[in-house]
Write a structure and sequence with these properties.
Oligomer: single chain
Strand content: 5-15%
Largest sheet: 5 strands, mixed
Distance between the termini: 60 Å
Strand order of the largest sheet: 1-2-3-7-6
Radius of gyration: 31 Å
Structural class: alpha+beta
Order of helices and strands: HHHHHHHHHHEHEEEEHEE
């Protein structure tokens, strides 16, 4: 019976370590590890757990971890080294901290030194809590834009089940260390928590998919509006071309009268009509549509808006560009609309292999910044502000670009460098 118990605890502890390593790999690598690699690694670790005693087991386990990360990140072997380092450091430090805090709460230091069975269950619980805390932390960090109540409900539920797992397991272990029901109850509760975590992952993935769907729908709407704008511009140009003969006759009449002021005024009116028919055009229909829409919105708010574009081809996907430009221009319009004589200047320009995006705008309110995080000056505390800049930073980081934000008393400046090549 002792051999089976030892195999059971080794297997369960290794499975928890496997799931923690999988999480580290998926959160740190640019792509998720293949399921075939995970399955092979899972089988290898299971077989490794079956013998009661293996010489140099720590070295073998370390080599298995390193091999999985190396294969999953190949050919970027440096990434596997740093992930393995972070995984080992987090594993040891988190277990030490959790063990001390858990033992202080349960006051079981004396029992740990007297009961090997109690110690085995305790160590598995500590490893499992380290896994759960890492999942909660990474999910919270990755999905800050999700309403906080969902994360709160999930944390309360997982925390309650973890407390139930700790209390019930260790209580039974104290009273009946040889109970046959203890391993069954322990395994069921761990599987229940794993199921909750898996369901929450699916929930987060569904929210991300819904956000992507909304962005794509917005891109489609912008492209349709842009097509209508182009069509209206062409109609206006045809009308101007049809009437140009009449315009020339009027200008000739003013010229015969030597009324140069009227000539200048009339030509200015015609020029304004030509200006209205010249929408912003880029190699991306979605980006063109967005820039035209934001420019029109700024003009409606009596904001002087100047947008210039100079890039031959756009290799960056529309989703990312809409996220970056949409949020930045919305922020700029909001700030400039509060100024007398508000203005916005935006420039998109290709420099070698990099796309440079600079947006400057006027502002009149004090900029509130703490540790690089900007907060809104709005008094409505029921709303979540500052999400736009966070999404922009995330999109830029995903492309391995750079973002620089600076401001003065009257001007807000954003400069972004993005790789624009394939």
């Amino acid at each position: 019976m002792g051999n089976l118990f030892h195999i059971y605890t080794d297997l369960l502890g290794n499975i928890i370590n496997i799931f923690l390593l999988f999480r580290f790999a998926d959160n740190s690598l640019p792509h998720k590890a293949r399921h075939s690699y995970k399955l092979f690694f899972f089988v290898a670790y299971t077989l490794y757990s079956l013998p009661e005693y293996i010489p140099y087991s720590f070295v073998i386990g370390f080599c298995l971890d390193a091999f999985f990360l190396l294969v999953s990140s190949w050919p970027n072997w440096k990434a596997s080294f740093f992930i393995l380092l972070k995984y080992e450091v987090y594993g040891y430090l988190s277990r030490i901290v959790i063990l001390l805090l858990h033992s202080l709460v349960f006051n079981d230091f004396s029992i740990l030194s007297l009961s090997d069975i109690y110690e085995e269950y305790k160590l598995i619980i500590i490893s499992f809590l380290a896994y759960v805390f890492y999942v909660l932390y990474t999910n919270c960090r990755r999905n800050r834009q999700i309403s906080s109540r969902y994360s709160l409900y999930f944390r309360v539920m997982i925390g309650s089940i973890c407390l139930l797992l700790s209390y019930s397991t260790l209580y039974i272990c104290r009273k009946e260390p040889d109970s046959q029901m203890l391993p069954v109850l322990f395994t069921i509760l761990i599987m229940l928590i794993m199921l909750c975590i898996s369901l929450y992952d699916k929930f987060l993935a569904l929210l991300a998919e819904n956000a992507n769907y909304k962005i794509q729908a917005e891109i489609n709407r912008l492209q349709e509006d842009y097509a209508l704008q182009i069509d209206e511009s062409l109609k206006t140009l045809r009308s101007l071309r049809h009437d140009i003969k009449n315009h020339l006759i009027i200008i000739d009449g003013y010229a015969s009268q030597k009324n140069f002021e009227k000539i200048h005024e009339y030509i200015s009116k015609i020029g304004d009509r030509f200006k209205d028919t010249a929408p912003i055009q880029t190699s991306s229909t979605a980006v063109s549509a967005l820039l035209n829409e934001k420019s029109a919105l700024a003009q409606q708010k009596n904001i002087s808006c100047e947008i210039t574009c100079d890039f031959p081809n756009l290799k960056i996907d529309d989703f990312t560009m809409i996220t970056i430009l949409g949020n930045l221009l919305d922020n700029a319009i909001t700030a400039a609309s509060k100024c007398a004589g508000g203005w916005i200047k935006a420039n998109l320009q290709q420099q070698d292999s990099m796309l440079t995006i600079t947006i400057d705008n006027s502002h009149s309110e004090e900029v509130q910044e703490k540790d690089g995080v900007f907060t809104s000056t709005k008094t409505d505390k029921s709303d979540i502000h500052g999400i736009g800049i966070k999404n922009v930073r995330k999109a830029v980081n995903n492309l391995r670009g750079q973002i620089d934000i600076s401001y003065t008393k009257n001007t807000f400046h954003v400069c972004i460098l993005l790789p624009n090549y394939k």
